[in-house]
Amino acid sequence: MFEIGIIDKRELFKTFYLERLTLNEENIQLISQFKATDEGKNLETYLKDKAWEADLEGESRVYLVKDESDSIALFFSLKCGLLYKKYQYDELDEEKREFVDVLIDAIQNGDDELLTEYYTSELCTESEMDQLFDIAYSRLELRMEEQVLQDGNYTLKVEESYSAIEIQHFCKNSLYNLRDREGISLGFGVFWELIVPLICEITERVGCKYIYLFAADQTDDEEVRRLVQYYKNELKFTDVEDMMLIKPYYDTDCLGLIQSVSDLYYHREAVWEEFADVG
What we know:
Blueprint: H1 6-12, E1 17-20, H2 27-31, H3 41-49, H4 51-56, E2 61-66, E3 72-85, H5 94-108, H6 112-119, H7 126-149, E4 160-172, E5 180-181, E6 184-185, H8 186-205, E7 210-215, H9 221-233, E8 238-239, E9 244-245, E10 255-260, H10 261-278
Parallel strand pairs: 4-7
Antiparallel strand pairs: 1-2, 2-3, 3-4, 3-9, 5-6, 7-10, 8-10
Helix pairs in contact: 5-7, 8-10
């Protein structure tokens, strides 16, 4: 049998299409027959018991991935999200936070002599002292702003925030009999040839800097590592290092992973080149 070229392999995934769950009443019956693996039973339960209402009410957008015969191969959902950075003050250890509080008091009291004494002391390096002084001035400015706006009880003050899209409930149908096409996993092909173009289309209309997901921890550590490595190696997600994710209670045991939207365009072509090199 002749070998199918990489371009043709990509074309195979164009025989799939996306359909929003609640736009077709027939999907009620179709999802009742959806089966996940043992590790994905929670996702199966979500699809059958909660997804219709969630999509209908706009809580998230649930998509079915169907083939030419209208069989469900996979489902996923997209939801608006938010990433943020904590204030530097919150990341300091207790001793340094106490020192920043002392600096704030001195600034408020106009005690320039004490501030000079602290700044020229050998409590820490000059660059560290500069950072602590910057944090103190920023924190005092924040306090004054909260007093003026009087919104401290209704807002979460953060250093920076970033628009994002969360990919939820990424789950294959274990009954689907064409899970792999020419050695390419269904999840890989669907992600790069259907989900990524959809996300790119959305971000052409609405500003969005990142996408992220939570890798489910439902089994032992070895299984989790395989799942995380799959997301990192095949779908090009990375660890979250200097930002915070808002994680709901049901994702407590899951690991957050992130990817820049601007990288999606490059990665989408690069992964197929990598696949061709491996093949």
